[in-house]
UniProtKB/TrEMBL annotation:
Protein name stated in the entry: dTDP-4-amino-4,6-dideoxygalactose transaminase
Organism the protein comes from: Paludibacter jiangxiensis
Keywords noted in UniProt: Pyridoxal phosphate
N6-(pyridoxal phosphate)lysine: modified positions: K191
Keyword Ribonucleoprotein annotated: no
Gene3D superfamilies: Aspartate Aminotransferase, domain 1 (3.90.1150.10), Type I PLP-dependent aspartate aminotransferase-like (Major domain) (3.40.640.10)
CDD domains according to UniProt: AHBA_syn
Domain of life: Bacteria
Lineage of the species this protein comes from: Bacteria, Pseudomonadati, Bacteroidota, Bacteroidia, Bacteroidales
Length: 378
């Protein structure tokens, strides 16, 4: 059996090596490392794939979130509602811009709670940032309705959910990240669509916002050396775009491989009393950026050590809620009650999840997880 890894980028690369290497070589031969046709080609292919009007490639997912917030004309002290159970970038950029992150609770599907959003709204609230955590869309229909009622912007954090599809109650289907005013994604290597370094993109159907975002990402310029607003320098480079062009063609197949692994885990583990398998919402497909269990009366540290000794890596996403982090537990932020987030942080465990897991590995992992659960009860 091959060594079990949390993420297997090497195995995935081996299968597309010729095409990827050729794409990289073309960029090197052209020496068009920045703003080349490759970046434009990838942008157009991603627009078509997602069914969105504008894709603006940027340097990484964190920049995507920051530039999106910069484009909305917010002022210091405006409140941005974010889930407390997420990767830090979501709140970090709000704090950096002098906005007030307002941390709210999630539900047991790991996505922002609609009730919690409603309770957190004040006259200063300007933005809601739903994070489609672990690859499943938040309840966007309800969140879009709230945004409309209270005249708020929505920035979707789709860094973990590219390729996932949301179905509205009238049957309309939309891609993750393309439902709000703006959507953000990351091409960090381990993401569902990952490059070989840093990369990210912003999605929007709004022409005016797209132009503003493009300008901010390029030093606030529209005409060269004429700066209309304070911007940043954030771009996807041509080598990353060449890699992403190849990988985008395989994205559906990659997500299907993740779903097949998740189905295997589900079948084997749903009978265990000591864990809850990931909840799947009827309105969203799940692209399983992570496969995350909720443990019940299990010594998590001991279980992780036990699995590690058996050759099975596991991870805790995320061990500390954002509202309890040193950098965010202060008067510049606000936190609502987040009991679900606090419980989840103490009992979630993510199993190996990537495109290359085979049946032998999955059989071994689930067998050992079951044994490990019985051996580490509290
Ligand atoms: C990865 C990630 C980001 C940040 O993306 P980078 O490309 O690493 O900057 C933001 N939000 C979430 C939920 C992520 O998973």
């Amino acid at each position: 059996m091959n060594t079990i890894q949390m993420v297997d980028l090497k195995g995935q690369y081996e299968k597309i090596k010729t095409e990827v290497n050729q794409g990289i070589q073309e960029v090197i031969d052209s020496t068009a490392f920045i703003k080349s046709g490759k970046v434009n080609d990838f942008q157009r292919q991603l627009e078509t794939y997602l069914g969105v009007k504008h894709v603006i490639p940027v340097g990484n997912g964190t920049d995507a979130l920051q530039i999106s917030m910069m484009a909305l004309g917010l002022k210091p002290g405006d409140e941005v509602i974010v889930p407390s159970f997420t990767f830090v970038a979501t709140a970090e950029v709000a704090a950096l811009l002098g906005l007030t992150p307002v941390f709210v609770d999630v539900d047991t599907d790991f996505c922002i709670s609609v009730e919690a959003i409603k309770q957190a709204i004040t006259p200063k609230t300007k933005v809601i940032v739903p994070v489609h955590l672990f690859g499943q869309n938040a309840n966007m229909e309800a969140i879009l309705a709230i945004a409309q009622d209270f005249n708020l912007f929505i920035i979707e954090d789709a860094c973990q959910s590219i390729g996932s599809v949301y179905t509205f109650s009238d049957g309309r289907k939309m891609s993750s990240g393309c439902m709000g005013d703006v959507g953000c994604t990351s091409f960090f290597p381990s993401k569902n669509l990952g490059c070989f370094g840093d990369g990210g993109a912003i999605f929007t159907n709004n022409d005016e916002l797209a132009a503003k975002i493009r300008s901010i990402a390029n030093h606030g310029m529209t005409v060269r050396y004429y700066h209309d607003q304070v911007g940043v320098n954030s771009r996807l480079d041509s080598i990353q775009a060449a890699i992403l062009e190849v990988k985008l063609k395989h994205l559906d197949e990659y997500n299907a491989a993740r779903q097949a692994a998740a189905d295997f885990y589900d079948r084997e583990l749903e009978i265990c009393d000591e864990v809850s398998i990931p909840k799947r919402n009827p309105y969203s497909t799940h692209v399983f950026h992570q496969y995350t269990l909720i443990l019940d009366r299990i010594n998590r540290d001991a279980l992780q050590k036990w699995l590690n000794n058996a050759g099975i890596p596991s991870m805790i996403y995320y061990p500390v809620p954002l509202h309890l982090q040193k950098a965010y537990k202060n008067e510049r932020c606000r936190a609502e009650n987040c009991p679900v987030t606090e419980t989840l942080s103490s009992c979630v465990l993510s199993l190996p999840m990537h495109t290359e897991l085979d049946e032998e590995q999955l059989t071994f992992i689930t067998k050992k997880v079951k044994e490990g659960l019985s051996a580490n009860r509290i």
